[in-house]
Specification:
Layout (H helix, E strand, L loop, with lengths): L1 E6 L5 H14 L4 E5 L6 H4 L4 H6 L7 H8 L19 H4 L2 E3 L2 E5 L13 H16 L3 E5 L9 H4 L4 E6 L3 H16 L5 E8 L2 H10 L5 E6 L3 H8 L8 H14 L1
Parallel strand pairs: 1-5, 1-6, 2-4, 2-5, 6-7, 7-8
Antiparallel strand pairs: 3-4
Helix pairs in contact: 1-11, 4-6
The chain binds adenosine-5'-diphosphate and magnesium ion.
The site of magnesium ion has 5 residues, from helix 1.
């Protein structure tokens, strides 16, 4: 399974990604978790030890490596560089492994405008493509609000793109935008996951207002998400209810 998780900032993408990661681990799958947020925090949500996370350097910050692989200095726009740099060794070399989950951080790319092509984005695009097409673990990509790093070449490799929404009009508006971008890329298998659902009314709001896509499950609003954050542990291990919701999403994905 290769799953991309998207949605407006703050809706609960990272929380959902962490729950899915442990669900697959409990089913004996190897998991490769990709933190594609410019300000990474998936490692903390997964309860990785701080010392391990300090070892982790986002790929976009590896100037030497980017230069070596693309032939151009990061930060340059235009000019000549390899659009298909070698990246197959990067996931194992620059990730950290804990509890059966391999974590890789992509980091931020300063985009120089729409469709910008710079050495950093070339590396990240090539790496994402490689991971989606060649890795045999369950891949979970905790994405930023959009679908950056995904291209047409990878559209078929994404088994499911989950658009996370909370019961707010704004998160649903973002979901509409993401759906349109995903359609442009010809990404199929789009699903809505409700998040921070407090009651029946919240669940109904999401059902009634989300883009016309299947709602594949929802996560209740649960104080143990914050508790886990404060204790530096994964919420999967604090909330059997959220773990159960994640399991039913995984079951529904097949
Ligand atoms: N199911 C939930 N119940 C309660 N709080 C949640 C839940 N999911 C996320 N949160 C809270 O919302 C905030 C954003 O969550 P996060 O997963 O980091 O979102 P995103 O990755 O979409 O930005 C965090 O403070 C987190 O504690
Ligand atoms: Mg996040």
């Amino acid at each position: 399974m290769k799953i991309a998780i998207t949605g407006k900032g703050g809706v609960g993408k990272t929380t959902l990604t962490s729950l899915l990661a442990y669900t697959y681990v409990d089913q004996d799958y190897g998991v490769l978790a990709i933190d594609a947020d410019p300000s990474p925090c998936l490692g903390a949500a997964l309860g990785f030890p701080e010392v391990l996370l300090q070892e982790l350097i986002p790929i976009s910050r590896m100037d030497e490596l980017i230069y070596e692989r693309t032939g151009a200095q990061p930060g340059t726009v235009g000019g000549f560089f390899k659009l298909n740099p070698r990246v197959d060794d990067l996931p194992d070399r620059f990730s950290v492994l804990h509890n059966g989950i391999r974590l890789l951080e992509l980091g931020a790319v300063e985009l120089g405008g729409a469709g910008c092509i710079c050495p950093e984005s070339a590396i990240l695009r090539a790496l994402t493509t490689h991971i989606l097409l060649r890795r045999d673990e369950v891949v979970l990509m905790d994405m930023y609000a959009g679908v950056e790093h995904l291209g047409r070449a990878t559209a078929d490799a994404v088994d499911a793109m989950l658009i996370v929404v909370e019961p707010t009009a704004r998160s649903i508006a973002t979901a509409d935008q993401i759906k349109a971008l995903a359609k442009d890329l010809k990404l199929a298998h789009l699903y809505i996951v409700g998040s921070k659902v407090r009651d029946e009314e919240d669940a109904k709001f999401i059902e009634a207002n989300s883009p016309d896509l299947p709602v594949i499950g929802h996560l209740d609003d649960d104080p143990r998400v914050r508790q886990a954050d404060r204790e530096g542990v994964a919420v999967y291990h604090l909330s059997p209810e959220l773990a159960g919701s994640a399991r039913s999403i995984v079951d529904a994905l097949g």
